[in-house]
Amino acid sequence: MGGEGNLKTALDIYTRLRTRAAGGQENTPCNDKDIEITLGRHLKIMGGADNQRKALEIYSRLRTRATGEQVNILSDDKEIELGLASIFIETREWDKFDELQLERPLFSGVETCLCLSIRFFRELTDVEKILPKHSILLGKAFNWA
After folding, report:
1. Regions of the chain with pLDDT less than 70
2. Reduced to 3 states, what is the DSSP secondary structure of residue 43?
3. The pTM is what?
4. Whole-angstrom Cα distance, residue 37 to residue 78?
5. DSSP codes of every residue in 60-124
6. So what's the pLDDT on residue 1?
7. What is the DSSP letter of 135?
């Protein structure tokens, strides 16, 4: 529903759910993937550098758990990898986005195609002067769209 008040109310609800799932410990990650994913998405939606950082920490922690406690290893969990991708788009970290290798067949689907299209289009919007070499970004954006 949007609006700053509703976003704050939703954050309070997600935070209470997380606290309850973490045995009553505040500001502590829980073992409920759905709560963690939802909290990460919500923080991303709320925007701002601090919320983006918190969302990235949540998705990174989920990825580490999904890969058997290996840090910075690609997981096979589409939700986690797309969560990371959305943050890298927002923060315009194109190299980190590309390292996710979302083109892998494992991640096929509408959400992945849309995410890839947005990534290339967003990078193109950052260019001050469109040069012929930038037509590649536009082509990739249209291809994935």
Report:
1. 1-2
2. helix
3. 0.89
4. 11
5. HHHHHHHTTS-TT---S-HHHHHHHHHHHHHTT-HHHHHHT-TTSGGG-SHHHHHHHHHHHHHHH
6. 65
7. H
Contact criterion met (CB below 8 Å) for 90 and 52? yes
**Structure-token pair, residue 112:** 């992945």
* The predicted structure's pLDDT at residue 54: 96
Give residue 106's pLDDT.
Answer: 83
Place of tokens 């939606």: 45
- The residue type at 122: R
What pLDDT is stored for residue 95 in this prediction? 96
For residue 25 the two structure tokens come to: 């410990």
Q: What is the pLDDT of residue 56?
A: 97
Nearby residues of 58 by Cβ (< 8 Å), 6 or more positions away:
29, 36, 37, 39, 40, 43, 83
Q: Specify the DSSP element, H or E, that contains 9.
A: helix 4-21
